[in-house]
Amino acid sequence: MEKVEIVEVSPRDGIQNEPKTLSLKDKRELIELAIRAGAKRIEVGSFVNPKRVPQMAGSEELMASLPRHDGVSYIGLTLNRRGFERALAARVHEVTFVVVASETFNQRNQGTGTFESLRVWNEIAAEAAGKMRAGVTIGAAFGCPFEGEVPLSRLLAVVEAAIDADPCEIGLADTIGVAVPRDIRERVGAVKERYPDIPIRLHLHNTRNMGYANAWAGIEAGVASLDSSLGGVGGCPFAPRATGNIATEDLVYMLERSGVETGIDLDAAIDAARWLEEKLEKQVPGQLMKAGPFPPHNEVLAGE
Ligand code: ZN
Q: Ligand 1 centroid to 287 CA: how many Å?
């Protein structure tokens, strides 16, 4: 059976743009629910300026309060050196360093140019070596809200500048949800062709309803990991009109029924998504939590 790893990003990308800020206790509960559903890699928070992303305040406190489970990795997101140092001190299992493919967006997101961020990434990767896993994710890899199209040559130049530092993976993020399956095939394929040994992680937003088709295109193109968030919550505070990630439970339904193993328990993921919906006090985009899995379970049939 084919396999793909799912990285749960609801505690970070999922809630960072929500008007309702989850308490520390609720964040911990969300992470525990994800683990109970089978998540093995979880983006637990970002180490960014809490003045800019208030929902991500207290990542240190959260990390200190999280139980450690064998085989479960907590990922901290970082945009710069200061964030890396905080993540290191908070004892995350791995860091994901974000650099944005387009100059304008990188300037707005991290206050510096793309290649200056990549220089910082190279330093950080050297420091992380032997201490923790460090990977790099390239934001706006399929299009930029400020510059529009991001040429493939530009993306590949960014990948090239990131790869020497030996990242544990390269993430390609469709931050504003503009990609279509052909873009996924083209860009994942181009990175794979040049660097066949490096695992590729795909980060998708469902802004234009292309998220699941893109996830499938990613599977066919050979990605190792897919990011998703319970209930499909999510959005980037610095990308205008950004909307949710693809929903973990909808993704798991598609993959498992197509013969791709995820290690995630669908019912537990649906329960977790419903819990999150209640906590956020609004309807979340996930569809499976409304429609229910198929085939229906025996309990449901017995009630007919
Ligand atoms: Zn995102």
A: 19
End-to-end Cα spacing for the chain: 35
Cβ < 5 A residues, ion ligand 1? 13
In a domain, 242, yes or no: yes
3-state secondary structure of 75: strand
Using one digit for the tens of pLDDT, what is the confidence trace for 204-257?
Answer: 999 999 999 999 999 999 999 999 999 999 876 666 666 899 999 999 999 999
Cα–Cα distances (Å) from 287 to 19, 114, 142, 232, 257, in that order, read 22, 36, 25, 9, 16
CATH of the domain at 171: 3.20.20.70
Query: Which member of 172, 215, 236, 260 is catalytic?
Result: 236
Residue 144: active-site member: no
CB 230 within 8 A of CB 200: no
Per the domain annotation, does 302 fall within a domain?
A: no
287-299 pLDDT per residue, tens? 999 999 999 876 6
Question: In this structure, which amino acid lies at residue 134?
Answer: A
Task: Say how many domains are in the chain.
Answer: 1
Residue 297 lies in a domain: no
pLDDT tens per residue across span 22-78:
999 999 999 999 999 999 999 999 998 888 888 888 899 999 999 999 999 999 999
Domain with 189 in it: 2-291
State in Å: Cα 234 to ligand 1 middle. 7
- Ligand 1 centroid to 267 CA: how many Å? 24
16 CA distance to ligand 1 centroid (A)?
10
Q: Which of 62, 72, 43, 93 is nearest to 227 (CA)?
A: 43
Length of the chain: 304
303: in domain: no
